[in-house]
Design goal:
single chain, alpha/beta, 286 residues, Arginase, Chain A, 31% helix, globular, 10 strands, two-stranded antiparallel ribbon, eight-stranded parallel beta sheet
Length: 286
Amino acid sequence: MGNKALNISTFIGCEKSYEEADIVLFGIPFDGTTSFRPGTRFAMQAIRTDSFGLETYSPYLDKDLEDVSVFDGGDLELPFGNTKKILDEIHAYTQGVLRDGKKFVMVGGEHLVSLPTIKAAYEKYPNLHVIHIDAHTDLRDDYLGEKLSHASVIRRCHDFLGDGRIFQFGIRSGMKEEFEWAKEHTYLERFSLETLKEKVLALKDVPVYVTMDLDVLDPGVFPGTGTPEPGGITYRELLEAIGSLQSLNQIVAADIVELSPPYDPSGASTAMACKTVREMLLTLVD
């Protein structure tokens, strides 16, 4: 698994040591349960390289990575072929980061890797609420008999979070049964992020974890993903959503998943993912 030593290759502006950092950035190169097109394991490597085409300053948030303490912990080194062991190792690493009093931004990888990081955050913050931005419901109880799947990650989070803790936005794909189940157990906004600002204000004083699947973006804008779903939002809308998250007083962690660089040789999808990482890192600043 990843170490806590200073890395040579980092995301731009994230050169602080682990000890002095308030926020830890790390990658999880795993796409072992991807149901359509694999490749998200290469996301963080591409993001680090392309981040040097960014400025450290965000004109959207008027904040600069040069003014905050972020450690890039590299990618976790994970065993192949054992999904449960992989999730356990991710969980242990994340527990350590939180135990040391730090926040984190995790970059996947497929969406299943959010399960152990959300669980670790819940263990530290029992009143944790989750904001889930995605094209897909991810509420199946299993996918072809497998309960640990990127298609069931939010359902597995509900197993320990329970009702009233999960808020879903941008959802436009899933089984009918998932949408019906959501009516009783989660808040789910179909197709858009229009109510996100309203819900953020209601959650502003509770611990919040944000999990963002980049396939919420329309594939005409963001083709570099494993399960593209037409009818999505624009990147400008995503930036506005991130802006609304600034009202949260206790955002404790976030993740950004499902960039698959091989499916967009233009590099545009990776560029959008890079900017999203920067904006989310700055969103976690107190």
